[in-house]
Write a structure and sequence with these properties.
Layout lengths: L5 H7 L3 H12 L9 H5 L6 H11 L4 H14 L3 H6 L2 H8 L6 H14 L8 H4 L7 H12 L8 H10 L8 H18 L4 H14 L18 H5 L16 E11 L2 E6 L10 E5 L3 E2 L5 H4 L7 E9 L4 E11 L8 E4 H4 L6 H7 L3
Parallel strand pairs: 1-6
Antiparallel strand pairs: 1-2, 1-3, 1-4, 2-3, 2-7, 5-6
Helix pairs in contact: 2-13, 4-5, 4-10, 10-13, 11-13
Length: about 350
């Protein structure tokens, strides 16, 4: 692990920020929420609503996956006031497929707070008070939307700085926690006057060049400065603790079908997949064997049609799917939706996997 003091780090990498910005001016990705470097040099700043919305969407997903959602949200709700006035169910429906649905609930809650303010918060302290906004998002919005002298630090940026400065502990959880603190401190020392462009340049570098596997060092603006490259082993950085195998939970899904319609139920607002429409289901548990007749919502001729498998953050789900064709609709809570429209009803990915087995 690097233990250099601040002055030596600034001295060793004094040109790193300008080298990165020079590269970014030529190679910046064109993204719908982003202003070009040329426009920013003219003193323009992006719409903070666009920056905030994109940053929430980009958590735990990729730019290609998030971009259509971003454009769809702007088409439906062009301003934060429009988003605040939307029905929660509409927001959850349009979010379906992006995952991590607590983000959508916080997004809508935050929009309502923002709509009641005179202006978009433009300090880190004010941004951190918003629902769903933590240290990373506040730094991202603060630097990109307002050129505050801070740098956001996500997984991509941690990897880039770990390699640049060969910051690496012993691969333990405690060692990685210390590495993250040091990386965050070192990034802040590199922040130049163009902090917004610097933040986005770091994001682009980690996403397109300094990738986890087979980094393209020959086109990297930091190839001459990178200590890991000089050692010849950039892929060894950072030394993170090995992930434990994910636990597997099992459960049963029940697709009740009548007159070409399927019954879906909305999950409670809090908890996993909160507020989302889903097929009827048993609970999900580890190491449990289920008896279909005991778990089924009604007595019917339930036929097994396959297993839907899905990976959540902390566990994997193996969901056995059963279908029953009913002559009349039972007295059960939920919404009956035509099968041909069900996939467009705002169902999360795991629910769509179950429906695809019909």
């Amino acid at each position: 692990m690097v233990n250099a003091n601040s002055s030596s780090v600034k001295s060793d990498f004094k040109n790193a920020s300008q080298d990165l910005l020079y590269w970014y001016d030529k190679m910046a990705r064109r993204l719908p929420w982003r202003l070009s470097p040329d426009n920013r040099k003219k003193g323009e700043l992006p719409d903070p609503y666009h920056v905030w919305l994109s940053e929430i969407m980009l958590q735990q997903t990729t730019v290609p996956h998030a971009t259509p959602y971003f454009l769809k949200f702007l088409d439906l709700w062009p301003t934060v006031q429009d988003l605040a006035a939307a029905e929660n169910e509409d927001v959850m429906r349009e979010w379906a497929g992006l995952g991590y649905y607590a983000r959508a609930r916080n997004l809508h809650k935050c929009a309502k707070v923002l709509a009641g303010l005179d202006k978009f918060p433009n300090t880190i302290e004010e941004l951190l008070k918003l629902p769903g906004v933590g240290p990373y998002t506040s730094a991202a919005v603060g630097s990109i939307a307002f050129d505050l002298p801070v740098a956001p630090v996500d997984g991509n940026i941690e990897r880039v700085i770990s390699r640049l400065m060969t910051i690496s502990g012993d691969g333990s959880a405690a060692g990685w926690a210390e590495d993250k603190k040091e990386i965050t401190a070192r990034v802040q020392e590199l922040v130049p006057a163009r902090s917004g462009d610097f933040a986005q340049a770091m994001m682009d570098l980690g996403a397109t060049v300094c990738t986890p596997k087979t980094p393209n060092c020959m086109i990297c603006p930091w190839v001459e400065s990178c200590l890991a490259k000089k050692e010849g082993n950039p892929e060894d950085y950072p030394a993170k603790p090995k992930r434990k195998p994910q636990p597997i939970r099992k459960g049963l899904a029940f697709l009740a079908i009548c007159d070409g319609q399927v019954l879906l139920q909305r999950r409670p607002d809090s908890g996993l997949l909160g507020g989302m429409l889903m097929p009827l289901s048993s609970d999900w548990a580890e190491g449990r064997e289920y008896v279909v007749l005991e778990e089924a919502p009604i007595g019917a001729d339930w036929k097994h049609v396959g297993q839907a498998r899905h990976v959540f953050t902390h566990f994997a789900l193996h969901w056995d799917v059963y279908v029953a064709n009913l002559e009349q609709k039972p007295d059960l809570e939920g919404e009956w939706i035509k099968l041909e429209y069900a996939m467009e009803a705002g169902i999360p990915t795991v629910g769509k996997k179950a429906l695809k087995l019909v």
